[in-house]
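Q: I'm teaching a short session on how sequence maps to structure, and I want students to see two examples side by side rather than one. Could you give me a first protein with its sequence written out and its structure tokens following it? Keep the formatting plain so it prints cleanly on a handout.
A: Of course. Example one:
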Amino acid sequence: MRSVAFRQFLLFGAVGTAGFVVDATVLLALTATTLVGPLAGRVASYLCAATFTWALNRVITFPDRAGRASPAQWARFLGANTVGALANFGIYTWLILEHPLLPGQPVVAVAIGSLSGLAINFTLSRSLVFQAGR
């Protein structure tokens, strides 16, 4: 049983890494226009990345637990990952606002924020969204 959870954790981390690429790419695209600042841009980039990771986790990480895709499951995924997202966004915001070198390097702050929520997001996703027997 532990090996299954460990494998899922590794896959969840790999999907999260791909989500980081989506998050950073969208953030850079939005902030490059200068129409959107790094904080508002991060909200949009996070939603894109969260949707992407929900879809991949259904297929790759938890295929035997995923059940049918639905707006309700997507909403549960976002809701269950709110704690990790708040830690992620809080650390990102703190770094952007308080660290003198990071406002010009938002991707570094995205990476640090993303790592902060990994364990929280995995645990809540596995137990609340992709439950055994679903």
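Q: Perfect. Now a second example for contrast.
A: Example two:
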Amino acid sequence: MSEGMNRTLLVGVLALAVLPGCPSTTDATGSTGTVSHSGSTSGDESEGDLERPPGSREPDSDGSAPTGDFMGDEGSSATADSSGGTGGSSSSATGPSPWGTPDSESGEALPERRPMTGSALSSYRDGVRLANDGQTAAARARFEAALSSDSGAFRAAYNLGVLYDREGNEARALEYYRQALRIQPDYELALQGIVAISIRHNNAAEAVSTTRPIADRWVRNLEVQAIYGRALVEAHREAEAVDIARRALRRDERSVANLRVLIAANLSLGRRELAISILDQAMGIDGDDAELHYFRARIRQEDGNLRDAIEEYRRAVALRSDYADARMALGILLLAGANYGEAVTQFEAVSRLAPQEAEVHLNLGDAYRSTKNWEKAKASFDRVIALDSNNAPVHFNLALMYMARAQAVEETDRAQALQFFTQAQQEFTSYRSLMGSRMARDDQSTEYLAELTRAIERTNRAIERDRARAERDAARAARDAAAGSGGGAGE
């Protein structure tokens, strides 16, 4: 990472299980970071799924327990816990429903989630497999086939949205997210996808206005309530977010998703000790929640306990291999600690999950630069410029890269070194121009430019010396040749 620049992924919280992107929160260090949702699969229909739905569930008819989304091949259903996982729930077949008793609790009964069957299910499973293998075009075709066979296949529509979102085609992504939400009107992941795009464009107000009517209608869907709460945090309406989360927790005090809302809101308000207390409570409910480990890592990082922060980020990634935000934060700490190889691995993984995010490629280019992989570093920096032509830090980093390349060949290829020094000078000039009034008085580029001026002068003098030496050597060789030729003729 370039000196003086603490960057992280700017795509936000409420991230989809396969795609980062939604409201950003201010982390414990004051930089903007992201936290993702940690749901897990439930039932055969979503087994190995791209989405790993967190599980909005309708209570059984007797209100005793939530049922799974999909009846398995043998007719059994998975029971989902309040945080979206299977098993380990505060509710059981004999325990109270986390969604409240339908006859006594307020709120509209949640809509049924009809499973896919037959050719639609087969196509859907093919799509999941292909997508997980990186065969995006083929996966898209299979999801489209599933949706064609079954117009109610909301998960197929959602995953089409995810694939388009990954490619940066937000317009098409929104079409499919909205289609999924029309089919299944309380589908939390489709709502997350829509809200993610609003927050990605720094429009928290739009995220709130999108989420509110859905949250107001489906008060029994605690995941939807949590999405609404996190959107409110992003809009700096923390008091309202706390109220939403507390109401959800009155239905199920073990709802980890809504405990996360309280953690995020209190961190945003600077109530660190309260946030830690709630985090400990949530960890006691679900110690395998990736986002909770991410929160803990951020707090450890604020405390200066970088070793523990790294381990918590590693734990989050182990629990969620597609947790782009945790990978990004981990990569930044590894890069700062000179663990360049592993930093590259983390940033490469993030670049596959969020290929349209300039900050991802900026960090990846930085890691490549640190490993002296110049061509890959240049390609990553060029990608940043293509995505964000006004990105000032990328020119700073390009300048550092050219300086390093120049220094590496200064003694063996002065002409090449001069070219690199000159390019570095140009990049620092571009950086300063883009920074404008934002640039600090003691910005490091000032010192670097002075150093480059000296390096260019030094290299020019060396080139002139080399040229003069070459001319002398050539003249001496010519005289020797002439002398030798003349001596031969005299004989």
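Q: What should students look for in example two?
A: Point them to this: The chain has two domains: 25-284, 362-473. Also worth mentioning: Confidence is low (pLDDT under 50) at residues 1-104.
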